[in-house]
From TrEMBL:
Transmembrane segments: none annotated. It comes from the Eukaryota. The keyword rRNA processing applies. Residues 245-475 form the Radical SAM core domain. Keywords: 4Fe-4S, Cytoplasm, Iron, Iron-sulfur, Metal-binding, Methyltransferase, rRNA processing, S-adenosyl-L-methionine, Transferase, tRNA processing. One of its GO terms (cellular component) is cytoplasm. SUPFAM superfamilies: Radical SAM enzymes. GO terms for biological process: rRNA base methylation; tRNA methylation. It is found in: Cytoplasm. The lineage of its organism: Eukaryota, Viridiplantae, Streptophyta, Embryophyta, Bryophyta. This is Radical SAM core domain-containing protein.
Length: 502
């Protein structure tokens, strides 16, 4: 046992216990392993000898310094060093098991987290346990259920099902959607008995911790949310002032973790596909941006990571929740798609008042199928035929997105051909021009300003209106998927067979 000025030196056994006891002064945890917390920058202060949280009988000794350490010394993270600090498995608490698992198998789960959020994640059971990891009873968990997405009537039904009064549902509705609480524990107006019962039954609010925030000089904020399975997903908050000077806040939401369609220029496509987002994970992006800006969101665009129509059901549920519970008008929302067979007609049946934006990126099938590989299975003519059906069914004109790639699709003749195509189909005559945001390892380049202006001019001469998207947040990895790729480079594996909706 090591002796120092303050007495025997021990290694802290639990992050939660250590932080709760105020023993750490550091703010950032780079990795957590059995029995050790390793910090970057500041050093933790270890002042007392904690007992093992598992058996409570054994004190935990530092097996690395063997009596030569000073009281505030803890090594930087190194797996070999971490092993020396490891507690025997039989002494591990449930929380330690989770942290150990995460440190070994999913280090990104912990890396970069603040101490508070690491502790919060453990205590809230947000460190996932995947099947087949040999973690025994930890995989026997109550199925998680989420309150985000529930209507007031449904929340009242939940309250009644626990033997409480109906008005508790109304209180929950207010706390979830207006006060934006993050955990069931924060349902402060609700009796503790009900909160405990709901937690035991697996109810969660459905909020995900923020993994990272990047703020651009122009005020754009890009966030990464860490989902239950430790995947990261992006959302972007874009503050603007309208012509009257009113503050507007647009959120670009993701609908999938990654994307399987692999458009040639897209950072998300390059990162691979993991899974569809659940509807509460989509709504959470809006709530989190409102939290960060402390401002009401005015506009939603489904243009973040993923193809919304590949996850149509969750997108429609999220759309309903955003509209009915968060009270953001349908006309304030835009759903963007490169086109997925059989889905535009299905979407038309819902007769949404939101705008459907078609990402064309090219004026003809040949060029389009080079830029958007999925277009090979869903030719331009078939896509525009479905768009025509959408217009006839909903009465809403479509808008078109066109990413300008230098030397690829940005010539005057491309603009001419695009104008001809839009007139021929008469679906809408507005094109949103997006000068390409360069991404790492990309073969494409951003067009010059002169080229963009020439393209716009050609379209307007042909009576096609345009808006050129001002690039926001370039210093915050503006292109969708860029920030996620920076933090989660490992190619994502699809846990299930990917199928196009029938
Ligand atoms: S542009 Fe959209 S559809 Fe294409 S790969 Fe990227 S996220 Fe997917």
């Amino acid at each position: 046992m090591a002796m120092t000025r303050g007495g025997p030196v021990r290694v802290v056994a639990s992050v939660g216990a250590a932080v709760a006891a105020g023993r750490f002064t550091s703010s950032t945890v780079s990795s957590v392993s059995l029995g050790g917390v390793y910090t970057v920058g500041e050093r933790p202060q270890i002042r007392s000898a904690p007992r093992c949280l598992g058996c409570k009988a054994h004190a935990v000794e530092c097996r690395l310094c063997k009596g030569n350490s000073t009281s505030d010394w803890v090594p930087s993270y190194d797996p070999a060093v971490a092993r020396l600090y490891a507690l025997p498995q039989r002494h591990s608490s449930r929380a330690q098991q989770r942290l150990n698992y995460a440190a070994k198998r999913q280090p990104w789960l912990i890396r970069g987290m603040t101490t508070e959020s690491a502790v919060e994640a453990v205590e809230a059971g947000e460190i996932p346990v995947l099947k087949g990891t040999g973690e025994g009873d930890l995989s026997q968990q109550v199925t998680r259920k989420y309150l985000i997405g529930k209507t007031q009537e449904e929340l009242e039904g939940i309250a009644l099902s626990f033997g409480e009064q109906k008005y508790r549902g109304k209180q929950m509705h207010q706390l979830i959607y207006k006060n934006k609480i993050r955990t069931v524990k924060e349902l402060a107006q609700i009796p503790k008995q009900l909160r405990d019962a709901m937690e035991s039954a697996g109810w969660n609010i459905g909020r995900s911790p923020i993994h990272h925030v990047a703020t651009s000089k122009d005020g754009t904020v890009k966030i990464l949310l860490r989902l239950d399975d430790s995947r990261l997903v992006e959302a972007v908050g874009i503050p603007v002032k309208d012509k009257e000077g009113n503050a507007k806040l647009t959120v670009c939401v993701s609908s999938q973790v990654g994307c399987a369609l692999k458009c040639a220029f897209c950072a998300t496509g390059k990162g691979g596909f993991a899974r569809n987002l659940k509807s509460h994970e989509i709504v959470d992006q809006v709530l989190t941006i409102e939290d960060i800006f402390r401002q009401r969101v005015t506009n939603i665009v489904f243009m973040g990571m993923g193809e919304p129509l590949m996850n149509l059901e969750a997108v429609l549920n999220a759309h309903r929740t955003i509209n009915k519970e968060l009270l953001i008008g349908q006309r304030m929302m835009t759903i963007s798609t490169v086109g997925v067979p059989n889905t535009i007609r299905r979407l038309a049946a819902h007769k949404l008042q939101s705008t459907l934006a078609i990402s064309l990126h090219a004026p003809n099938q040949d060029l389009r199928s080079q830029i958007v590989p999925s277009a090979k299975g869903y030719p331009l003519d078939a896509l525009l035929e479905d768009c025509k059906y959408y217009f006839e069914t909903t009465g809403r004109r479509l808008s078109f997105e066109y990413t300008l790639l230098a030397g690829v699709n940005d010539q005057r003749e491309h603009a001419e051909e695009l104008a001809t195509l839009l007139h021929q189909w008469d679906l809408g005559r507005h094109v949103n021009i997006i000068p390409y945001n360069p991404i790492a390892d990309s073969e494409f380049e951003r067009p010059t300003k002169a080229r963009v202006l020439a393209f716009v001019e050609t379209l307007s001469k042909r009576r096609v209106t345009t808006s050129v998207r001002v690039t926001r947040g370039l210093d915050a990895n503006a292109a969708c998927g860029q920030l996620r790729n920076e933090f989660q480079k490992t190619p994502l594996q699809a846990p299930m067979e990917l199928s196009v909706p029938a």
